[in-house]
Amino acid sequence: MNIADLVQTRRTTKAFDPARKLTADQVAQIETLLRFAPSSTNAQPWHFVIASTEEGKARLADTFAGAHGYNEPKIRNASHVVVLCARQALTDDHLAQVLAQEQADGRFADDAARAGQHAGRAHFVNLHRFERRDAQHWADKQVYIALGFLLLGAAALGVDACPIEGFDQGAVDAALGLREKGLSSAVVVALGFSAASDFNARLPKSRLPLNEVITRI
Ligand SMILES: Cc1cc2nc3c(=O)[nH]c(=O)nc-3n(C[C@H](O)[C@H](O)[C@H](O)COP(=O)(O)O)c2cc1C
Q: Which of 11, 22, 102, 121 could form a disulfide with 107 if both were Cys (CB 3.0 to 4.6 A apart)?
């Protein structure tokens, strides 16, 4: 795979073919890439809701009616829709769960290594909780790393995608019962296959010139 070719041929899909669905293998690979996305201090401050049933997609799509109606058909016609959620708080319980998982996965040679990992993570978490007071924003930034993984990974799998920020976060949170679970929706990605009516498929890519966006020192 040539990564430069891939990024120049992947594109945002503006209309999905409702008849075409992801294969079980594609879905499994996408779930794996979400799970394995990197995050600062491995805090994994996220959760991903994947809608693929008609009922699930309709529940989401109904929240797009009105102000975000331009995105509604993408939700209804996509094969799968991923709601990337951030944890509202990095609780001590969550940090303990991450540490226990790292231990179970064999990351620590001894108790000192385990304590060191916890102290390092707690330092950054507390920095964002109490000094910068931007823990929610920090969590959102980690979620957007997963977004990048998802968009590139989907392209590598030959799956079309539309990243979506044009949605009512409060309505999506309510429709999915996210707040009760300590989560809030950050960004949505519709996945599937481009329809004949997808105007973006016929448009050339456009980006600022290389020297505008990259400085070599
Ligand atoms: C975070 C994010 C949010 C976006 N939100 C929407 C959206 O709500 N609706 C939409 O049609 N496209 C949306 N886009 C698509 C962008 O317009 C598109 O990625 C950009 O124009 C570059 O085009 P390309 O993805 O085809 O390379 C979004 C993209 C990103 C990365």
A: 102
